[in-house]
Amino acid sequence: MENKSQLNIIIYETSNLIKGLHVSYCIYLVNIVWHMQYTNVDDVVVSAYQLGHLYSFIVLKLLQFEGYKLVKNSKDIFMSFRDLHMEMKEDKDARWFELECVPEDYIPLKENRPQNLDSPVCDSIPVIDLAKPNGLVEEILKGSQEFGFFQVINHGIPEKILIDAMNVLKEFFDMQGKNAPTGTIPDKKGYIYTRSDFADDGTNLWRENLKHPCHPLERCIHLWPDTPTRYQEVIATYLVEIQKLSSRILEMIDEGLGLEQGHFKNTSEVQLLSSNFYPPCADPSLTLGLSPHFDTSLISLVYQGGSPGLQFIKDGQWINVGAIPNAFVVNIGNQLEIISNKKLKSVQHRVVTSTHATRLSIATFVNPSLDCIIEPAKVLVNELEPSLYPTSQYKDYVQRTNAFGAYTAAILNAMR
Ligand SMILES: O=C(O)CCC(=O)C(=O)O
Fold first, then answer.
1. pTM of the model as a whole
2. What is the domain count for the chain?
3. Which residue numbers delimit the Fe2OG dioxygenase domain (predicted)?
4. What pLDDT is attached to residue 168?
């Protein structure tokens, strides 16, 4: 059938149905018109046949071959409409997540499922007002030591830049049809788009993801998506602001830890952007948007546009990071845990989905430069507090820990 909204039906085996308005034929027609009103099927072709002799039998078989459905009673009519509906749902415009139940390959083993979705929202992770004149370093250190997480408000990034970035990313994800290529985009080297990528246990994650390198901007920008056409300009503007904000936060961490001034100045880069689109899910207790993980970064900055879903672990319990409009969530990554000799905590986190809300997030990873040697800062190591970590070059660490899963090599190449 060319036109998907057309249903071809053959009513068969009603006696004398072609001759005049036989009552059961009328009932069939009323039934069909009724179904048409309540579905988006706009065209039904009805043919009526009596089964009984060979000629009718052959014609019926031929019509069936052409895509006609044989109906004998009202239940069959209902089923035909339902089947057509399912077909229409699976048509080329339908997205992978438009499903009434969660497919099995999205459901991890019981122990890896989100389980209790009534996790409390953490009201004690610091929400730090960066416009305050003093006390910022202490608050940032407290959040980084106790939770590995804090949020910042009044950070100085104009709201328009945040809205533009979210809008252009939403457009990007909206444009990815059923057949959009996934994985590393060949002529773009480091730009990676995935739909329902895999968790470590091989089940699918309930998200779409876009990743690309960001440093130095002028060398990376041509690797990014060029549709929507505003993408490169809008995201470059966003990243310039993230660079400024992250440097400011790292300077305060530097001061709080008592490291030499400018410790991170020439050794940190906003290296990678990873944007996530988590559509609503029929049963969020069964599947995950993003499985539990630690960040390999120094720090990560997440803009979540006020939407919930991000959780971190505290004393063995998953806690929701509060959804504050215009705030940035900042978390400590593994590299900063090493440099601080575990004074600051890199904490496991994950994303759960929602039945009604879509989450769009922009994570930016501030990493050491690839050649940087990572080890606990000398001033933080002494006889009482010996070094807890071996020395390693950052790029070796990324390789050894397979930091970006299947895309580790592609991302390392793109960042070189
Ligand atoms: O907040 C999100 O949606 C995910 C952030 C994150 O943990 C990541 O991208 O690694």
1. 0.79
2. 2
3. 268-368
4. 98
Mutate to test the pocket of ligand 1, among 273, 298, 300, 360 (most ligand atoms within 8 A of CB): 300
Average pLDDT over residues 299-315: 95
pLDDT tens sequence across 392-413: 999 999 999 888 877 888 878 7
Domain of 62, in residue numbers:
14-106
157 and 98 together in one domain: no
User: Using a 6 Å cutoff on CB, does residue 304 contact ligand 1?
Assistant: yes
Identify whether residues 261 and 380 lie together within a single domain: yes
User: What's the confidence (pLDDT) of residue 21?
Assistant: 53
Nearest CA to ligand 1 atom 8: 363
Over pLDDT 90: what percentage of the chain?
59
311 CA → ligand 1 middle, Å: 10
The reply to whether 236 and 276 lie within a common domain is yes
**Strand pairing category for 328-332 and 149-153:** antiparallel
Which alpha helices (DSSP H) does 4-149 contain, by range?
23-38, 54-65, 74-89, 136-146
Q: Is the CB of 274 under 6 A from ligand 1?
A: yes
Which atom from ligand 1 is nearest to the alpha carbon of 349?
7
- On whether residue 113 sits in a domain, the answer given is no
Task: Please report the DSSP string for 328-356 in residue order.
Answer: EEEEE-HHHHHHTTTSS----EEE---SS
- State residue 210 phi and psi, 5-degree precision: -125, 130
User: Is pLDDT at 313 greater than 80 in this prediction?
Assistant: yes
Ligand 1 centroid – CA 384 distance (Å): 36
Q: Are residues 77 and 173 in the same domain?
A: no
Model confidence band, residue 258 (pLDDT cutoffs 50, 70, 90)? very high
